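During the no-cost extension, the postdoctoral fellow (Dr. R.K.) reprocessed legacy sequence entries with the updated structure-token encoder. One reprocessed record is reproduced below for audit purposes.
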Amino acid sequence: MFDEVTLSRKKISELKQQNRFFKDMDDLGVDVSIKGNVVSFSSDRAVDMLSIKDMLLAFGRGFVYDTARMLLDDQYELRIIKLSDYSKSENRQFQIKARIIGRRGSIKRQIGKLTSCFIAVYGKTVSVIGPYEGVEIAAEAIDLLSKGAKYTTVFKFISDNLRSIAGE
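Re-encoded structure tokens follow.
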């Protein structure tokens, strides 16, 4: 099986400096080549192909390599939310990003901490990496914020959902 992912020049440069990436691919028995801004990879295992593609997409969406690398473990998943799904206006997308990030990153950090997820706001996307339940809750919280919900409503939603998962 063969696949490829296109990354920005900056991200390709960062990836080439990640010796760990090439070691990880070698350990998995995956053939990798980088030409221009395209990373091509092939493996006999479909599971590896999906995990590697998600890892590269996450890296390209602003996560540091060590965080993106978590996607090689099948207990973690990636969700990419396009801000253009909420507004075509660049100004409105900027406002949505600001609401999600919060003052000095406080909202993004708090959602990540509560849901055990990592959140990256990069370009016109918001991406989430974490365990399945956490990603579902974090993505829904981001959806609520993007639609204009109050912060108290969003954090009550997170709290209620975490309680229901815990079985309370």
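The mean pLDDT is 94. The two ends are 45 Å apart (CA to CA). The remaining legacy entries will be reprocessed before the final report is submitted.
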